[in-house]
Every structure is written in C-alpha cells, then in structure tokens.
Design a protein that fits this description.
The chain has 147 residues and is mainly α. It is built from 3 helices and 3 strands; from the N terminus they run ααβββα. The chain has a 3-stranded antiparallel beta sheet with strand order 1-2-3, with no helix packed on it. Strand 2 and strand 3 form a beta hairpin. The longest helix is centred in the middle third of the chain and has 52 residues.
Length: 147
C-alpha cells in the first residue's frame, strides 16, 4: 500500500481537528524536526518579483561601483608601477640610464676602465686579447716614430 501525499486533503477539518487526528494516530511525535514546507503559489510569485527587483538593484549598484572603481584601479596601478620603479632604483643604488661611456686603458695594470661622461669609473676589467694586441702594436708604432 502506498502512503498518501496528504492525509486530510478534500476534508472540511479545521487545523485543530487535523492536529488532534495526527496526535491520535501517531506512534511517535518528533519535536523540532527540520523539513522544507512548500510555498503557496502567491508567495512564490511575490518572492520571484522581489528577486527580480533585487537583481536589478544589484546590477545598478555594480555599475556604480565599476564607474568609481575603474579610475581608482588605474590610479592604483600607476602608483604601484612608480613604487616598483623607485624600489628597484633604491635596490640598485641609482637609476638606470643609457648614455655614452668611455673605455680608458690602464696599460701599467693591463686593465680597461669604463667611465661615465662625468669621468666616474663604472667598472673595470682585464684587457681582452684583442686589446692587449692593440697595445703592443701601438707601442711598436710609437717606438718606430721616435726612431
């Protein structure tokens, strides 16, 4: 036998009479049991209308937020870029520039100094084999000219 979906559907019983019948027939009464009580059709219609209105309001507020936040995000991105550049410059001890430099030989020590346009030594390194050869040839040329 299949259980009925509604025990008292189609009867003229009041809510109190239905409750009295249930209490009389039940073998156990469970207090505070959680279940989903279906909505009435009118309630569903009202809730759906409210949901539509809420979604419209959400879209409207998100549009306002986007209009305000996009310029702020752009400004924030620019400031982060500037902060990153400053941080890199501080870590490097100066700013990166592209300018002329001058390789000045130190023949006594066999080193090549790289200098800025202000004459400040950037770095030094040993002569390359080609630079050593140039030095030998320039010394021979000078000796030949002095003879």
């Amino acid at each position: 036998m299949q259980l009925k979906k509604s025990l008292f559907e189609g009867t003229d019983l009041t809510n109190d009479e239905i409750l009295e019948n249930l209490e009389g027939e039940a073998v156990d009464v469970m207090e505070d049991q959680t279940y989903i009580k279906p909505f009435e059709v009118e309630t569903i219609v009202e809730m759906e209308a409210e949901l539509v209105n809420l979604n419209k309001a959400i879209v409207k507020e998100e549009t306002k937020l986007k209009a305000v936040s996009d310029p702020l995000k752009a400004a924030l991105k620019q400031k982060r870029t500037q902060a990153k550049e400053l941080s890199e410059q501080l870590n490097n001890g100066g700013e990166e520039v592209k300018a002329r430099t001058f390789a000045i030989p130190d023949h006594e020590n066999g080193m090549m100094g790289i200098y800025t346009e202000q004459g400040i030594l950037l770095n030094s390194r040993p002569f390359t084999p080609r630079e050593k050869q140039l030095h030998i040839n320039s010394v021979r040329h000078l000796k030949a000219a002095n003879l």
